[in-house]
Amino acid sequence: MEHKGKITDLQSHTGVEVMRCYQCGKCTAGCVLATDMNFPPSYVMRLLQTGTKENYIKILGSNSIWLCLNCENCLGRCPMEIDIPKMMDYLRTQAIKENILHPDSKPIISFHRSFLDSIKYTGRLYELGLIAEFKARTFRVTQDLTIAPAMFLKGKLHLLPEKIKDRMTMKRIFAKTIENVKTENK
Amino acid sequence: MKIGFYPGCSLTGSSREYNESVVAIAKVLDIELTEINDWNCCGATAAHSMNEELSMSLPARIMAMAEKQGLTEVVVPCAACYNRLKVTQHDLKDETKRKRVSEILQLPYDGSIEIINVLQMLEKYGAENIKAKVTQPFAHKVACYYGCLLVRPHSILQFDRVEDPQSMDELIKVVGGTTIDWAFKTECCGGGFSVSRTDLVAKLSGNILEDAADRGAEALIVACPMCQSNLDMRRGAINKVIERPSDIPVIYITQAIGLALGIDAKELGLKRHFVTVEL
Amino acid sequence: MEKLRERAAAILADGTVSLVIGYEEGTKRPRPLFCHDGESARKLIFDSRCFHNLAVYLTKKELVGNGRFAVTATISTLRSIMQLYVENQLSEDKLLILTVDLSGTLREFVTFDEISAYVEQFELKRSEREQAILTRIEGMTREERWNFWQEEMSHCFKCYACRSACPLCYCTKCVVEVNRPQWINPWPAPVANMEWHINRAMHMVGRCTACGACGDACPVGIPIDLITRKMMEDMAPEFGYIPGLPVKKGNALSTWKLDDREQFIR
Amino acid sequence: MSKIGVFICHCGENISATVDVERVAREIGGMEGVAHAIDYKYMCSDPGQTFIKEAVKKYDLDGVVVGACSPRMHEPTFRRACAEAGLNPYLCEMANLREHCSWVHEKGEETTEKAIDLVKMLVEKVKKNNPLESIKVPVTKRALVIGGGIAGIQASLDIANTGHKVILIERDPSIGGHMSQLSETFPTLDCSQCILTPRMVEVAQHPNIKLYTYAELESLEGFIGNFTAKIRLKAKSVNYSTCTGCGACIQKCPVKKIPSEFNAGLGTRTAIYVPFPQAVPNKPVIDRVNCNYYKRGACKICEKTCQVGSIEWDKEDEIISEEVGAVVLATGFDVKGTDFFPEYGYGKYKDVLTGLQFERLASASGPTFGEIRRPSDGAIPKKIVFIACAGSRDPAKGIPYCSKICCMYTAKHAMLYQHKVHDGESTVFYMDIRAGGKNYEEFVRRAIEEDTVNYVRGRVARVYEKNGKLIVKGVDTLLGGEQVEIEADMVVLATAGVANCGSEQLAQKLHVSYDPYHFFAEAHPKLKPVETNTAGIFLAGACQAPKDIPETVGMASGAAVKVAALFSNNELVREPIIAVVNRLAPPLYSTCVGCFMCETACPYNAIEHEEIKARDGSLIRTIARVNSGLCQGCGTCVAFCRSKSIDIQGYTNEQVYAEVMSLLND
Amino acid sequence: MSSEEIFEPKIVAFVCNWCTYAGADLTGTSRLKYATNVKIVRFPCTGRIDFLLLLKSFAQGADGIIVSGCHPNDCHYTSGNFHARRRWIAFRSILDMMGVDVRRVQYSWVSAAEGSKWADLVNNTVADIRALGPYTDYQKVADYLEKEVQDGEA
Predict the structure, then answer these.
(1) Is the pLDDT of residue E151 over 50?
(2) D70 vs E: CB within 8 A
(3) ipTM of the complex
(4) Domain that holds residue D198
C-alpha cells in the first residue's frame, strides 16, 4: 500500500496519472537520451504502473531520472499528454529525499547545488564561482582547463560576482523552499 | 516603442554578445528596453530539478519586481529564462501555489505581465521596420535552430508550431537570408548538462551540427544562450565525436539581423565566439 | 431625466409607441406611471429610488395591447426583459426600452443583444441586507434552517403578492389553481406554504434574475426572495451561467451537459 | 362511481406461496369503486382471460387491474383480453405482484400487505385512466438513401428489391464511395472494384431506384412515414439526357492539373471530368471552380468538342422536393490527411502517404497502374514503413477512439507491397493488432509469417527527410524500449477514420443526434444499432462509426429491413403514450403560455409552435403543440411545464398523483 | 430496543420503465430478497418525474424516497435522465436551503441488468432511513394542515 500511496502522491504533486499511459513508446522513440538511460521513459511509466515498492525504488535509483533533460519532446508528442518531464522533476526530488541516488546523479546534483549556491548568496549566477565550486565538489580539477581562460579572454567571465540589492528576499526564498525540505528530512 | 527587459544571468556573462546584439538592434529599431530593477536569476534547470517551490519563487520574484515597476510587457531573450517565466506564470494560476509563493516572496504578484521572447518582439515590433532598415542583406544559407525551451511545452507557451517552427526562418528571410529545411530544429542540444555531462552534450549537439552541416548550412542561427554555448564553446568536444568535424559558426538571430542592419561585427559581440564568425 | 421626458413625449407624439411605462413621484416612493400622452410624460422620473420592477406589466396584454410600447428600465428590469424575450413573452418589434446610464446619458434598447451587452457590465452582487440574512442562514444547521423557515412561513397567508410582483410569473393559470390534481393547496397552512415557496423556487431555476420584487412585495416581510437568490447563486457555477444574465438559448433546467455533477447519485 | 374489476393471479404458486392472494382479493374487493375482485391460479391462461372478459361484460367494468407478473411480461395479453370484451385496452393496468413482491420477499404479513398496497395503487390509477386510441400514421412507401457508397448502394438495392421505391442521392458525380478507391480487400484480397462495379450498375438500372448524383440534401421536414425532402441538384453543366459519355470533351479539356479526388490527390484530372473510368453514371460534370470558362469567361473547348451539344453553361442548381416515408443515412467517413501530423512533417514530405493514397498506388486503376512508386521521384521503394494508429488513440492531437479498420488494411498494404516488390522490406509500427473478425487474425499472421512483414510494437516519434530517405525514429517496446531507426523510401500513415465533413450540419438538418466526434448516434448502442433517435431515420455504414466492408454491408441490409418493415403496413400504429398540450375554449384556448421550455427539453424535436389566430387572421397567441408522429412519450416536457399545460397520456398527472396518494394513505 | 420496536420506514420509489423497473424485475427473476418497505411507482422516464411528487410524498407520510433511472447515456429516450439529473441538482439545493432533509431522497442509476444493485439499493436505503428515524418534522407540518381542516369542518 505504501508504494500505491507514492503513485497517489506523484499524481497529486504533478497531475500525472500513470495509468493513462498505454505503452505506445512514442516518448522513448523520440527521447534523445533514451539509449543512455537505465530505463527509457516508457519503461519508467510501466514500472510505475506496476505499483510495487521494488519497482519504485528501481526508478529512484536509476540514472533515467537524472539524464532527463526536460527537453519535453515526450510531452509534446505523447498521445495521452502525460507530463513526463514534470514527473521526472518530482522523482528527482524524491530520490534526493529518500537518498537513493544513482552514481550518475552525483555530477548533476553537484552542478545544480553549485548553481543554486551561487544564486543564493548573490541573487545572480556567478559563473566563475559556479565552475570553481563544481570542480571542488566533483574533484574534476582538470575539466575545462582550456575553456575557462578562453572565455575570460573573450570577455565572457566576470572575475567578481554581480550582487543584487535585495539579498534578504533571496535568502528567504531559499530558507522557505529548498532548505525547508532539508530540515524536514532531518 | 517601450518594452520591459529581463536579460538574465547568461546575458551578463557567458553570453554577453547576445545582450550586446539585442541592445544594438533595439537601438536601431527604436525599441526602448527598460531593464527590470534588481532582477535575480530565474533558477534555470537547477531549481526545477531540485525543488518545485524554489523553481516558482525565483521567476515569481522577477515578475513581481517588473509589476512593481509598472511594466506590462517584458522581453526575455534567453530561451531558458523565457520558458521558466512562462511556465511559472502558468503554474501560479493555481490559487494554492500562488498563495504559497506570495507567502515566500512577501511581494505582491498578480501574474498580469506579458512575457515574450526575442522572436516575438521582433515579429511584433520589427518585421516591417527591419525590412526597411536592411542595409546589407544577410545573404547566407543558414539553419535556424530553435531548441526545446522556445517551443515546448506548446500548451503553455503557445508559440509557433511544435515541430518544424517557422518564426525564426521568417525573420531570416526578411533580412535577405535563406533557410534550410532540416531535421533537428527542435531537438535538444544537451541543455543544462553543459558542465556536468559534457560527453552527452557533445553527442546531442553533434547530431544537430552534423545535420545542419550536411545540408549545406553556412551557420546555425539560435535564440538561446545555452544552445549557443553548447554548440559553440563545446565545439572541441563535439568535433571529437562526430564523423566530419565542422567549423560552421553559431550566431544569435539578433546578431544576424544586426549584420543586415549594418551594425559593426564587434558591437554585435561576434568576436566573442569560439568558432570564428566570417559572414 | 429631462431628456427622458422629452424622448417619451416625442415617441408618444409621433406615434412610435402608444404607451410609456415609467415612474412618477409617489407619496412615499416613486410609483409606476402609465403615460398615453406627452402631457403625462412630463411627470416621468427616473432615479435610484425607482426600484419597482416594471417588467411585470409588460406581459399584461390588457394593459399593453397589441401596439408598440416603451418602458423605462432599471438594470433589474432589463434583466427581466431579457428573460421574457428568451421565453417568447415579449417581441423585440413591440418594445422600446429607455434607460439612463450611470453617466446620466439617455440610452435606448430594442434587442436582446443590445441589452445583454449593456447589462453585462453590471455584476449581480448581494445587497447588505441579502448578505446579512444569507450569511446567517448559511451558518445554520439544517434543523435550524428548517425551524427558521417554518417560523417565517407561519406568517404567510397566501396573498400571492410574490406571484403578482414577479415579472416571470406570467402564467394564465398558476399551478395552485390547477385542481386535477390539486398539487398545492391554495390556502395558508404550513405544508402548503412551504410547498408553494419551494415550487416557486423550482420554477425559477435558470430564470430568476434576482430583482427582489417578490421579497419587496411580501406584506409580512418573509425574505422569500432569498430562496430564489440562493438557488440562483448555487446553480450558476453548477450550470455555468452568469447570475442575472439570461442567455438566449439553453435554459439551465431544460438543457444538460454530459458531465453534470452526480456525486449524489448512488 | 367507478366499477373496477380486480383479478389476482396465483401464478401457480409463484405468487400464492408468499402472498395470501385470497386476502388480497378480499380486501381489495372492499375498496371504494371496486365492483368485482377474484383470485385465480393462472390469470394469463385461457380460462383466466375468460374470467376477465366475462366480468367486464357482467359488471359493466370501466377499469381492470390484474395483480400478477410484471406488466413488461403480460400487459399486452390482458389489454387484448379487455379489448376483446369491449373495454378500451388502456383502461387495463397491472400490479406487479410477482417480480416486485412475491419473488423478492419472504412469506409473511408484510408481503401480503405490500401486495395489497401495490394493487390499491393501480386501482387508484385506473380510476383516473382515460380510454385512448392507438395513433395511426399513414406511410409514404418511398425511401430516401443519402450517400452512394457501398452502404447506400446495398441499402438501396435491398429496399428496392422488396418492391419499394428508393431515391438515392450522392454528393459526388459518381456513386461508389471509398470502396471504389480501394485496391484489394481484406481478408480475401479480392479486387474491390470487381465486386463493387456490378452493384453500381445494378443501382443505375434498377427500376425502383431513382439516382441523383451530384446532389445534396437541402432540408428534411416531417416525421416517420411522412417526410418531405428537399434535394439540391448541383449544376452539372452537362445535359445527361443527351450526353453519350463519349469522353471527347475530357480529352480536350486544357485544365489538366487538378488533383484528382478519386486518386486521393496522387493523380490529376481535368475540369470537365468523370471521377474514374467505371463511374456510374459514366458522364462528366464541369468543376466550375477550376474551369477556365467559369474562372475567366473564355475557353469553351469542351462545347466545341461535344458533338451532341450537351454542355449547359448557364445551368443552375435546382431544388426538387420528394415525399418519402423513411431515410437511410449512409454518408460514410473521411480520413485525416498527412498535413495533420506535425511530427511526420505537416504533410510536406511527398513520400509520406495516407493509407487511402497507398490504396490508389496499389490499385490497378490508380495513377501508377498498380505499381508501388514514390510520388516524389517515381522510384520503387525498397524500404517501406507503415505507421498504425496515426491520429487514432491520440486524444492529445487526434481522436481518442480506435478507427478499427487500420490494423487490417495495414496488414493488407504490407502484404500487397511484399507481393509487388519482392526484394522490398516492410515494417509495421503498431500498438495492438486488432484483428477481430472472420479470418482476420489468420490474415495478419500470414502477413507476418509468410510475407515476412516486420512487425514492431511501438510508436514512431518522428519522421524526417535526409538525402532522399525518410528517417523513421521509432521504438521497439518489446525490447524494453530500444530505439529503432529506419531509413525508409516511403512511409504510410494509417490515419484516423473520422466523420465525413458536413456530417454535423446534416445531422442538424435531420434532427438526429451525433457523438462528440460527429458520427451519427444510434438509438441504442446494443439493441438499436441502425435506428436513430428520430423515428424513421436509419443508419448504415461508417457514418455511425468507422467500420469495414462486411460490417457496413450487414448494417446497410439491417437498415433496409427496418425500412421494409416500416413499409409493410399502410399505416403506422403507435402506442398513444404521447404528450398532449391542453386545449380550452376561447378566450383561453390553452393554459400554455408559450414559454417553450419544453421545446429545448424535448429530445425528439416534437414540440411545434401553434399559432392561434383570430378570424381576421391576426395572431392571438402562440402555444406549444406536440407532433404525435415525433413524440416518443418520455414525458420530460411534462415535468418541466410550470402551468401543467402539457400532460402525457398513460402517465397523466392525475394518474401518478393518485398512485402516490394511495400508496402512502393508511 | 427490542425487535418489535424496529422502525419500519415508508419508502416510495419513483423509477423509469426501461432501466430500473426492468432491473427490479430482474431482481425478482433472480429471486434476490429485499425489504418490503419500498413500493415502486412506474414512470416512462426519470425525465417525467415531477419534483412536486417528491414533496407530496413527504407530506403524505413517506420517510424516504428513491428516485432511480437509467445510467447516463443509457436513457431509452436519450436524455431524460440527464434532464432529471439537472432537476435534482437544483431541487436538492432548494430543499437544503429550506432545511428539508435531503438525505431522505436517494437518487440512483440502476440498469435493466442490475438486479442485485436494485436489491442492495433498497436494503441500504431502508437501513439509512431507519437510522434517520421517521420524518416527523415534515409529517408534523403536514398533519397540522389536516387537523386544521378537520377542525375547521368540525
Answers:
(1) no
(2) yes
(3) 0.69
(4) 141-228+317-331+515-570
Q: Are D367 and D475 in contact (CB under 8 A)?
A: no
Q: Which fold has domain A2-98?
A: Fumarate Reductase Iron-sulfur Protein; Chain B, domain 2 (1.10.1060)
Q: Using an 8 Å Cβ cutoff, are D372 and D361 in contact?
A: yes
pLDDT at E152 over 50: no
Shortest CA gap D393–chain A (Å): 7
Position E1 confidence tier, pLDDT thresholds 50, 70, 90 = very low
Q: Across the interface, do D597 and C254 touch by the CB < 8 Å criterion? A: yes
Put simply, whether B183 touches D (Cβ < 8 Å) is yes
D abuts A (3+ Cβ pairs < 8 Å): yes
Q: Which of D413, D363, D405, D371 is CA-nearest to residue D197?
A: D363
Residues of chain A found within 8 Å of residue B44, distances taken between Cβ atoms: 115, 125
Mean pLDDT of all residues in D191-203: 96
Rounded Cα gap, residues E104 and E133, in angstroms? 10
Q: Which CATH number among 3.90.1720.10, 1.20.1050.140, 1.10.3720.10, 1.10.3080.10 corresponds to the domain B2-118?
A: 1.20.1050.140
- The strands making up C19-24's β-sheet, listed across from edge to edge, are C31-35, C19-24, C69-72, C95-100, C106-109
- pLDDT tens per residue across span A1-55: 456 788 889 999 889 999 999 999 999 999 999 999 999 999 999 999 999 999 9
Q: Indicate yes or no: CB of A25 within 8 angstroms of CB of D477.
A: yes
Q: Beta-strand (E) ranges in D274-394? A: 285-286, 318-324, 326-329, 333-335, 352-354, 383-390
Query: With contact defined as beta carbons under 8 Å apart, do B36 and B71 qualify?
Result: yes
Mutate to test the interface with D, among B161, B164, B182, B204 (most CBs of D within 10 A): B164
Q: What's the pLDDT at D377?
A: 96
CATH of the domain at E77: 3.40.50
8 Å CB contact between D514 and D554: no
pLDDT, tens digit, for every residue of B74-119? 999 999 999 999 999 999 999 899 999 999 999 999 899 999 999 9
Cα separation, D362 vs D420, whole angstroms: 9
What residues in B contact A83, CB-CB < 8 Å?
A: 153
Residue of E nearest to D660 (CA): E57
Q: Do D466 and B183 touch (CB under 8 A)?
A: yes
* Cβ neighbours of C173 in D, within 8 Å: 588, 591, 643, 645
pLDDT digits 0-9 by tens, D72-109: 899 999 999 999 999 999 999 999 999 999 999 999 99
Partners of residue B82 in chain A, C-beta under 8 Å: none
